[in-house]
């Protein structure tokens, strides 16, 4: 295994452990649920094959499903987020050849573009997970509040992790 694979494996194990042990028990104001493990899917190199990406995403979601008793909801949402990742990335970065590194980051994409990419991907995941969890649109405003609050909280946590995992020669928040 190369250095990048080892790095992402360690980050994935740590984030899954944090999600399963700590963040699954946190719900701010009965609305915002922090979702941090999806950061791994968004940060995987863009050069990874679609089959590998979908397999990694599905297994990551399945691991969270096992810990949180959510019966495949996270697996489905992770797989859909992984499917939409390349399209969303190319929406914000039409010229991939200008990227010096294949891993999405503030250094390679720019601060504003990276923030748009992360927030869009997080919004897709949160919309899917809360729509599936509700299984009805009886209380639409509560679902929308949960989606927006969870997206914002998760985005803040992902930016904090991103700031901690960047190298010293990269820009930090």
Give a short summary of the structure:
By secondary structure, the chain is mainly α.
What does this structure look like?
This protein has 173 residues and is mainly α. It has one domain (3-165). It has helices at 3-21, 39-43, 50-68, 73-92, 106-109, 111-134, 140-165.
Q: Which tags fit this structure?
A:
mainly alpha
Secondary-structure map with pairings?
Elements: H1 3-21, H2 39-43, H3 50-68, H4 73-92, H5 106-109, H6 111-134, H7 140-165
Helicity, as a percent range: 55-70%
Shape: globular
* Largest β-sheet summary: none
Strand content: under 5%
What Rg do the Cα atoms give? 16 Å
Quote the distance from N terminus to C terminus: 30 Å
User: What order do the SSEs take from the amino end to the carboxyl end, as H and E?
Assistant: HHHHHHH
Tell me the total number of β-strands.
0
Overall pLDDT confidence: 87
Total helix count? 7
Quickly give the structural class: mainly alpha
Q: Structurally, how many domains make up the residues?
A: 1
Poorly predicted runs of 5 or more residues: none
């Amino acid at each position: 295994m190369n250095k990048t694979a080892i790095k992402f494996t360690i980050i994935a194990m740590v984030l899954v452990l944090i999600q399963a042990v700590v963040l699954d028990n946190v719900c701010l104001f009965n609305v915002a649920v922090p979702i941090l493990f999806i950061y791994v899917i968004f940060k995987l190199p863009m050069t990874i094959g679609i089959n590998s990406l979908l397999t990694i995403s599905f297994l990551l979601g399945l691991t969270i499903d096992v810990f949180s008793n959510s019966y495949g909801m996270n697996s489905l949402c992770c797989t859909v987020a992984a499917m939409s990742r390349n399209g969303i990335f190319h929406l914000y970065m039409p010229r991939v050849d200008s990227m010096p590194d294949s891993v999405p980051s503030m250094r390679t994409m720019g601060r504003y573009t990276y923030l748009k990419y992360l927030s869009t991907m997080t919004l897709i995941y949160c919309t899917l997970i809360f729509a599936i969890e509700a299984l009805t649109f009886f209380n639409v405003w509560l679902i929308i509040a949960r989606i927006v609050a969870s997206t914002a909280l998760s985005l803040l946590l992902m930016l904090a992790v991103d700031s901690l995992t960047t190298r010293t020669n990269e820009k930090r928040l």
